[in-house]
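From the shared-data thread, chain only:
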Amino acid sequence: MKKLIILFAIYMIPVLSHAQTWDTFKIDSAVSVKLPKGFTKTDTDKKYSLVARTSFGTILFFKTPDIPLVTPDIEKDRHLKSFYDGYIKSVKSSSSDALITGEEDKLIGELKVKDFTLQIDTGGGILFRDFRILHANSATYIFEFLYQNIHKEYAIPERDKFFNSIEVNENLSRSDQYTSQALNPEKPDNTKYLIWGIIVVLLAVGLTIFLILRKKGQRRNS
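Structure, as tokens:
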């Protein structure tokens, strides 16, 4: 009888995953993405975050508008690359045992994005955090998909569904990824790194959210 229950559970895992309903959510006039129903949104002074649960992972999203005197100048593609590389460096430095893998440059329409994976040993297993970072429309958009190694087989299709659903306004061009000189007049050099401090805080928030959701899930299953 026990073997039948286990086999039934294994069979139902992919079925339940496909049964989850996802809807398109318009983040703003520039960006939209598909999310499973039941997500939560926090909106404060043009900054906001989204949290959604899939069958085998957790979706996190953060939008941070460019900040005068803080956001680095992005006037050319090489500056955009440097901005993305700086973000990855700050993510790696957020944890002593962090491992960055899968760095890849991609395009959404005409816009350049950066994908990478952060791997962390949480003490309760390996946690993967897949990132996509996009700077456009005077803001930084951070898309994350978190999942545990034991769920990898079924979480990856959900991750791909999430990232493949990200769309940008067709009227946006590469120039919309740059900042203007007016944004950062006479910006002192020692302030531009403050943005990476904000990013590290977002990383900590994301991990906390994931651990809380995981504990709630474990309680429901026990």
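The first helix runs from residue 2 to 19.
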